[in-house]
Structures are given as structure tokens and as C-alpha cells.
């Protein structure tokens, strides 16, 4: 695997950013959804949390911390998926919108899980340990 020097280069972060923007466009700007303040804040927050936790974990510079934040991100993916069901059940989005966003969230969750497995098996400890002496 090539060395990645910034979180913006990670495919899972890019996908999470796309999902957060799709959710914003589909929900936050919808007049019907705007009245459901709690769900609006929850889905906006959890979709942002998916990408934010990837970025924060990466920036910490250590493998174990990164894995920890990736698990938070994966948990936020689960929140988004559950909230998408509520939005669909309340008829804020149609079936096509639901399936598109749900599928993207599912892909992000699976890719994040695979990345966690990869990092768990990696001997690379992270950039903050690069110049430390044993």
C-alpha cells in the first residue's frame, strides 16, 4: 500500500464527504424535513461525524488511535443508516434516495471495517512513532 500523507486522499473519507453532502442536499434543505429538528440535527451530525472521525484519527499519527477513531466512524455509519430508515418511514425521502444513500453508507462501513483489519495486521505504528528510538 502506498503511503498516504493526508486524510483527504483516503477513499473512505472521500465517500463519507460525498454522503454528508448528499444528506445535506436531500434533508437539510427540505422544507418538510426542516420541521423535524431532532432528526435533522442527528442525521446531519452523524453523517459529518463519519468523515470527521476518519480525519481526526488520521491526523493523530498513530495506528492504534487511528483504528480507534475508525471504529467511531463505523459506529456513526450505523447511526446514519438507522436515521435514513426513519427519514424514509416519515416520507422525507423516496425509495430511490433512501437506497442510494443507504448503499453508500453501507459501502463506507464495509470499507472502513476492511481498513481496520488491514491496520490491525500492519506493523507500521504511525508517523508519530517514526523518529522515536526504542
Helix/strand layout:
Blueprint: H1 11-28, H2 31-34, H3 37-59, H4 63-89, H5 95-121
Helix pairs in contact: 1-3, 1-5, 3-4, 4-5
How do you describe this structure in short?
The chain is mainly alpha-helical and 134 residues long. The chain contains five helices and no strands.
Written account of the structure:
- The chain has one domain: 23S rRNA-intervening sequence (de novo design (two linked rop proteins)).
- Helix content is about 75%, strand content about 0%.
- The protein is built from five helices and no strands.
- Helix 1 runs antiparallel to helix 3 and helix 1 runs antiparallel to helix 5.
- The longest helix has 27 residues.
- It is elongated and about 50 Å long.
Descriptive labels:
134 residues; de novo design (two linked rop proteins); 5 helices; elongated; mainly alpha
Series of H and E elements: HHHHH
How many strands, what sense, and barrel or not for the largest sheet?
none
How many helices? The count is 5
Topology-level CATH name: de novo design (two linked rop proteins)
How many beta-strand elements?
A: 0
| Structural class by helix and strand composition | mainly alpha
Taken as a percent bin, the fraction of beta residues is under 5%
CATH architecture: Up-down Bundle
Instruction: Note the gap between the termini.
Output: 25 Å
Low-confidence stretches: none
Rough shape? elongated
Helix content: over 70%
Q: Given this structure, which CATH class is correct?
A: Mainly Alpha
Rg, alpha carbons: 17 Å
